[in-house]
Amino acid sequence: MGLFDRLKKSLGPTKKQMMETVKAMLDLMEMDIKDIWGITDTKQFVLAMSGWIHRKSNFGTRLSALTDEERVVYIVVSFRGEVNNGGFQQFLYSSSGAFAGELLFSLSAIGAKRTAELYRGVLESFPWGIPTDIVQRRKRLEEALTEDILKAIDFSDDEFFKDPDDLDQLLYRYIMNNQHRIT
Q: Is the Cβ–Cβ distance between 112 and 170 less than 8 Å?
């Protein structure tokens, strides 16, 4: 194998492979609920179920359409997505930050004790609470974020990225244990 071929191989997947992966993910997220129950791979199951729950809630605009158990999954999946995209700050600043007050309950409901502790540590930096209104929340966060708080949040981000609870496994178990309430 020549230098060019080794370099090309070391750069990772080709554009075609990446497009195939994206298509497979989109296909999972667009599956019908009846088909989702037959998925045996935990990560694929959770991805497909989160796609279905997001569609059922019209991507968060009709949360009243969700059962309490579906809402727990919606909140945890939204939280995880935001933190994976930009840390706890991303979660708090985004529209998903409106669930800041419900997140501890949702993490506890699925059994994510370590992640809940990390989040509790972030919340302690804001003793006045986190407003649900995005404009108020962003204003309060801007006023409150100090260098020390940012360092604490960065630490929590680093710990979160280690996935101390295996959120996919916990979400899978929670969904399966509440199958009768996920419709």
A: yes
Q: What is the pLDDT of residues 13-35, one digit of tens each?
A: 677 777 787 777 888 889 999 99
Residue 146: inside a domain, yes or no? yes
Which residues, other chains included, contact 161 with Cβ-Cβ below 8 Å and sequence gap of 6+? 84
> What is the Cα–Cα distance from 36 to 52, expressed in whole angstroms?
9
- Residues of the chain below pLDDT 70: 1-13
Does any domain span residue 13? Answer: no
Asked if residue 141 is part of any domain, the answer here is yes
Can you tell me the distance from the alpha carbon of 163 to that of 177, in angstroms, rounded to the nearest whole number?
22
Q: Which structural domain, as residue segments, surrounds residue 128?
A: 60-181
Q: Does some domain include residue 49? A: no
Using one digit for the tens of pLDDT, what is the confidence trace for 144-174?
999 999 999 999 999 999 999 999 999 999 9
Q: Are 172 and 111 in contact (CB under 8 A)?
A: no
CA distance between the termini of the chain: 53
Domain count, the chain: 1
| Distance separating alpha carbons of residues 107 and 73, to the nearest angstrom | 9
